[in-house]
Specification:
The protein has a domain at 28-98: SUI1-like domain (Translation Initiation Factor Eif1, 2-Layer Sandwich), CATH 3.30.780. It is 36% helix and 22% strand. The chain has helices spanning 12-22, 56-70, 88-98, and strands at residues 32-38, 43-49, 74-77, 80-84. It contains three helices and four strands, in the order αββαββα. With 103 residues, it is α+β, with helices and mostly antiparallel strands. A hairpin with a 2-residue loop joins β3 and β4.
Length: 103
């Protein structure tokens, strides 16, 4: 059988670009992770502040990764990540895996 629609490509360039993006975070910044109750019914949310960048694209990529890791919803508000539920321990574990450290 022939390779009619088969295309081979090298994915190494994309991996290099992704690591370069992640390295633009200031990973030794003062990160504040706390849980709060919001709204009428008092739903718990986890706030992550002080990630060391104002670049919205990088923050959205990090938000997507942390939402998948924690298995919950979340949003980006004023350069702060807001996750649904009490996800303090999971978010600390995720940020340490990604190389973030409190200074």
């Amino acid at each position: 059988m022939g390779k009619k629609n088969w295309i081979e490509f090298d994915n190494q360039e994309k991996k290099f670009q992704e690591t370069a993006k992640v390295d633009t975070f200031y990973k030794r910044s003062k990160i504040n992770i706390s849980k709060q109750k919001k709204g009428k019914k008092g739903k718990t949310v986890t706030l992550i502040r002080g990630l060391g960048t104002e670049d919205e694209i990088l923050l959205k990529e990090l938000l997507k990764k942390i939402k998948v890791f924690c298995g919950t919803g979340g949003t980006l508000i004023d350069s702060n990540i807001q996750l649904q539920g009490d996800m303090v321990a999971k978010s600390i574990e995720f940020l340490r895996k990604e190389g973030f450290y409190n200074s």
